[in-house]
User: Which sequence fits this backbone?
């Protein structure tokens, strides 16, 4: 019985680690990118990436659309961001 209780406690701890840990997945040029780990370091703020979760971000990266948080975040991202950094976050299946 004690072993069963211990296993249940471990399971609850593991489940609690993922509470609020929603994945942030975006699309760009037909590919999927996982921004979950990066969102805390995003220069425009984590909230920006949460708001584009599940969306095609092409127009955001090109500066054609902005994201409204406590202010409007809208700018063209660098070629480095698009061509070198973003591919490191690609989800490959």
Assistant:
């Amino acid at each position: 019985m004690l072993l069963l209780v211990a296993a249940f406690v471990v399971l609850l701890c593991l489940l609690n680690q993922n509470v609020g840990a929603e994945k942030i997945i975006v699309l760009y040029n037909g590919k999927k990118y996982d921004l979950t780990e990066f969102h805390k370091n995003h220069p425009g703020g984590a909230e920006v990436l949460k708001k584009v979760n599940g969306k095609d971000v092409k127009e955001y990266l090109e500066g054609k659309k902005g994201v409204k948080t406590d202010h409007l975040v809208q700018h063209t991202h660098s070629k480095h961001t698009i061509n070198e950094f973003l591919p490191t976050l690609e989800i490959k299946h």
Remarks:
- The chain has a mean pLDDT of 84.
- Strands lie at 25-28, 31-34, 67-68, 72-73.
- The chain has one domain: 21-89.
